[in-house]
Amino acid sequence: MKKGFTLVELMVAVALMSIGILAMGESFSFIQRGIQASKNKTIAANLTQEKMQILKQKNYYTIVPTGAAYTDYVEEFEPDIPYDAYFFPPESLQEAGVNYTRYTYIQVVREDSGEIVTLSPDVPDTGMRMITVTATWREKGELKKVQMSSVVSNPNTSMATCALNGKVTDSAWPYPEIEGAVINMAENQGYRDTTNSNGDYDISVNPGNYTINVTAPGYFQALKSVSILASQTQTNDFSLVRKATGSVTGTPWIRNHLVIGQIVGSSVNAYGFDQEWVEVYNPTTWTWTMATGLNAGVIGIGYELRNAALQIIDMDYLTMDLEPSHYYLFANTTTIMADGVTRLADAVYKNTNANYPNIIKINADPGNDAATVGLIWLATLKVIDVVGWKTAGNSTGAEGDPIDQTIGLEAAEQFVRKSSYSSLSDGVGRAYDSNSNNKDFFVLKPLIYGPKNSANHENPITGTPANGAIVTCSDGLSDPATAYLTGTWPYAQFQLTSVATGTWSVIITSGSYSFQHDTVTVTAGGTYAFASSATALTNDISWGFVNGRVLDGDGLAISVNPISVTNYENNTAADAADGEYMLMVSTGYNTITANPGNANSNYVEISSQNVFVETGQITSLPDFILWEGARITGFITKDGVNPFPGITVVIFDEGGAASEQQVSGSDGRFMTNTVSTGNYSVTPMVDSRESVVPSSYSVTLASPGITYFSSTFTVRNAMGSISGTVTKNGEPIKTGVLIVVTTVTLSGNPPEPPDLSVDTLTGAPYYTTSSNENGEYAIEVRQSTNPAYNVYAYYSAPVTEACVISSSGTIGVGVLAGEETPNIDFEW
């Protein structure tokens, strides 16, 4: 007898095979996703490399540093990715069916003690610029990126043949070398160095007159004017004076929520009515909406007995709002008489409540047990504050430890919140909240403190201890301090040490809440102590601060037409009328600019980039040293009359160093920032295929605050561009179409360009490009309207077993200098 398969065995085999096939399918799907992700990343890397190569082939001076006013950010990454939104705007590219965006960002950099550091975009040319190209794309809904940075150097940088060196020491200490001191030339902040462990610095500079500015944390700055000749090495040592210091202490509190101030479960009035009430206190600086109508409560009371369901006590609301530093009285009767006072309730229990009128049980009530009273948002049942108490052997929900009771809440007994961490006083708001009910409340019998309602006002001196709060000072010397809990009844305390003598701002932050005091005076060896009631964190904050000084070349405050300091990221500004400023800025990386736009035309504009600011904290910046100067303007044209926008103009000083560069606007005009007085050469930078007349122009800046006109410059043989689309049956051609532009009329079918030879190098020009995956093309050509250009497009497509080239052409296309001739489209 032959053996076979039973139906059951066959079904089991089929099921196992199906599971295996599904597993294989899932495995293939996973592999495919991995391959696609790798492909996307490779393409993105190629796009960044392509852009990097394009930029490196440009004239160095046309790689314009990205100024603060032209910087935007991709905000989906941490940190945000800055990019140039003006000179090198974002590019949308499609490759292999994926949409990419390519961003470019140009920074001025310099080597400082062996490291590359970024500088303000408006400092004189250092001969080095960092190009950062970022390509982004979406993958399964998430934004991905590939980023590449590279430093490009100026091959024509004037050789810095002079050397300034020296040592920076402490004027009083036995081990005097100061490591980390920053040495800047005020007139050219591209010349800088940082002292090493021996206090030594060494800077290569061009011949000229300079103001050396030396700064180090904890020391007063030093300034020195020097003059250095060609090929000279000059030594300048500095002995810095250490700043005297003191300290700042305080006890910070957070006041950001309502608290339950008192609970009474039974107090019989003169008429024999058994009263109960819950008193609420508002220690915050804002008004809370308790209800919007008699039966429209917003905030209410919930009561929960151990092992019983939460009961929301229905109320008639008589008072709608709870003002700062006032109380609010929930009660089972309209009038409360206790401890010799009579108070009107702000909200009254409805008689429809279960167990009305005595809902909160006392020890004499049947079923008395551990219980909880909560202050609750009625719409969401979210708890604002909660107070719980326990009985012998039983406990319930509470903040921290419940109030320690043996037999529960008694008649004529009250739970009263402390006004400070160790006491309770009438006249002071019942605000102390350490998040532990047993530490926060006094248990009193008989009643000593009567109820308070919305007519009662008492200022708080405490709140919730601000444990972990960060404390910073604007002195520029002290490090941030942290407040920590201390004491049997906890409070938070901080000590800010090594605070420079003087009058400063102190900011304390915890989460999104802050406290700021701007007149903290610190004396040598002294301690400034905040009163407990003076350090309440009540302000909602989501920003930070930067501070510092703005001085002239002599180290003095600029009193005439005070200097402004600006944060371009969120358009905030502050005056430095006395040389000092405090600027509110967004958190994260910021660019801070002194004298933006040369508002005071006698002085230069200087920026400090990549300043990182944390929420509610003060970041102190090195001094801005502004030197006097003047401006240079000029006019770039195509033909001596019509403006030519987009041409880079470089201002060279007598030593051949680039002091400033600008780009001509839509009107062909350019104007420099303020540069120091002296002799300069103004030179437009054009493509190697272009020329300019005059090639340069000399200008002498004799007086500060004056704008000097240089010349009208005419660009010859300038470049323009032609752009368009290529489509078939209305859809973009993704495979690439060859575009040929020439002034010659081509013949043949398809029209045939000449073979490349020596003859083509001396004859009419030919320009070629290929369309991209979006079916778009753009090609740069020399300006020409007579003769005009002929544009030819060649499309190669398979037909049966052969590949057929079809063509199309447009004749008489004129191109103007610096302009784009668009919409030269081809359709098959």
Structure description:
By secondary structure, the chain is mainly beta. It has three helices and 70 strands. The strands form 18 sheets. Strands 25-30-27-19-18-34-35 form a seven-stranded mixed β-sheet. Strands 3, 4, 5, 6 and 7 form a five-stranded antiparallel β-sheet that branches. It has a five-stranded mixed β-sheet with strand order 24-23-31-32-33. The longest helix has 50 residues. The two termini are 74 Å apart.
**Which residues form runs of ≥5 with pLDDT under 50?**
none
Distance between the termini: 74 Å
Q: What is the averaged pLDDT score? A: 88
Overall domain count: 6
Radius of gyration: 38 Å
Please state roughly what percent of the residues sit in beta strands, choosing from under 5%, 5-15%, 15-25%, 25-35%, 35-45% or over 45%: over 45%
Q: Mind telling me the CATH superfamily name of the largest domain?
A: Lamin Tail domain
What's the total number of strands? 70
In CATH terms, what is the architecture of the largest domain?
Sandwich
User: What's the overall geometry?
Assistant: globular
> Order of strands in the sheet with the most strands?
25-30-27-19-18-34-35
Largest sheet at a glance? 7 strands, mixed
